[in-house]
Hints:
Blueprint: E1 7-10, E2 17-25, H1 29-37, E3 47-52, E4 58-67, E5 78-85, H2 87-99, E6 103-104, H3 109-116, H4 122-133, H5 137-147, H6 150-174, H7 176-184, H8 186-214, E7 216-222, H9 228-236, E8 254-260, E9 263-269, H10 279-292, E10 297-303, H11 309-317, E11 325-330, H12 332-335, E12 340-342, E13 345-350, H13 359-370, H14 384-407, H15 410-428, H16 434-441
Parallel strand pairs: 1-6, 7-9, 7-10, 10-11, 11-13
Antiparallel strand pairs: 1-2, 2-5, 3-4, 4-5, 8-9, 12-13
Helix pairs in contact: 4-5, 6-7, 6-8, 6-15, 8-14, 14-15
The structure holds guanosine-5'-triphosphate (GTP) and magnesium ion.
Magnesium ion binds near residues 228, 250 and 269.
Amino acid sequence: xxxxxxxxxxxxxxxxxxxxxxxxxxxxxxxxxxxxxxxxxxxxxxxxxxxxxxxxxxxxxxxxxxxxxxxxxxxxxxxxxxxxxxxxxxxxxxxxxxxxxxxxxxxxxxxxxxxxxxxxxxxxxxxxxxxxxxxxxxxxxxxxxxxxxxxxxxxxxxxxxxxxxxxxxxxxxxxxxxxxxxxxxxxxxxxxxxxxxxxxxxxxxxxxxxxxxxxxxxxxxxxxxxxxxxxxxxxxxxxxxxxxxxxxxxxxxxxxxxxxxxxxxxxxxxxxxxxxxxxxxxxxxxxxxxxxxxxxxxxxxxxxxxxxxxxxxxxxxxxxxxxxxxxxxxxxxxxxxxxxxxxxxxxxxxxxxxxxxxxxxxxxxxxxxxxxxxxxxxxxxxxxxxxxxxxxxxxxxxxxxxxxxxxxxxxxxxxxxxxxxxxxxxxxxxxxxxxxxxxxxxxxxxxx
Length: 448
Ligand SMILES: Nc1nc2c(ncn2[C@@H]2O[C@H](COP(=O)(O)OP(=O)(O)OP(=O)(O)O)[C@@H](O)[C@H]2O)c(=O)[nH]1
Ligand SMILES: [Mg+2]
């Protein structure tokens, strides 16, 4: 991948602000500084300069910061132009920088260069994007820990332990007359156990982090008038959706972002599921079903005061078969059923969206589904990609210990350990293909 060209982007969010920053990185930085503001300022010192266009006319005045490579964010020469934060000023400044030889940066390209120049490994670079996007304090803290390299260090430590084990096993293979003994040594079993525990621990920290990052997608469904919108409002703590006693009130999807113990949850209220002649309502029902296909968990709201067993069965049968469904018996203030868990029905909760009774039991039930034990101080922000790679590494490790136990086959164990090590390397980017890199960085925002 060539980094011979110079990239530029507006690094601050669009709109008006006190300050707006244009960031430039690459070998063209000295020329651009000369053309724009009379030359490079001293390294890492803020200097007030006038920015001028090709005819020497002023565009803006502001601070200029120069970070010489390789000790910069990208590892290249980096220039930061702090102008006044209005969209027109920023556009003019960026245009001038492009005129002086830079090209527009792709999303994530600054971080991609940081990765290519060894300033950040892949897991750290991803943590940059996660920190910017984090939806909760717990997620932000976890992202920062990953950005500072704690997650990468844990992955490396696991990799080192794998290498040591491989050396031990390969030594055993090289001395065939002793192989059986070495492989039968309690020492080897001790090492395997320790490694297994290290895997479990890292996977747990990562799983929690992945929940913090990606959250839970929770869809509320049910017959018209069951109280879906009332339940959404209760959970969200505000009147987000319209509630009336007219069946078919909700048509559009109503989305609310909430948090449970710091875990982001995307709540979606949907149109009541029924056959309808009304084209607007039919579209609402179609959207509700489409949303269900992507749900992690569905809350099936049932009016407990007006049960209709046949209709309930038909409705439940129409849901995607693999979908996890929690039944919410609503309106117990009318039906008189006690709130909370329902005897004999582990997948049900009795509640009243109107009075709030049973809501705590519902939250507990969702919490249990998430399996989140609270954002521990050692949680790392993580993506499904990391979790996938860890699981593959773990699977190879388990396969290796299995062949050792069953067949005392040192070569096979060594090969599985090699594959495990390789899977771990994908997390930090040691063995990551170019198109995967492209996909990862393209999800960043521009200017980062
Ligand atoms: N008594 C009582 N009434 C409730 C409760 N929950 C909802 N309702 C009432 O039931 C009616 C329908 O409530 P909604 O929340 O609009 O029901 P919905 O399922 O969203 O209805 P659609 O959007 O039409 O599908 C309203 O009059 C609510 O006030 C409850 O727990 N107890
Ligand atoms: Mg509704």
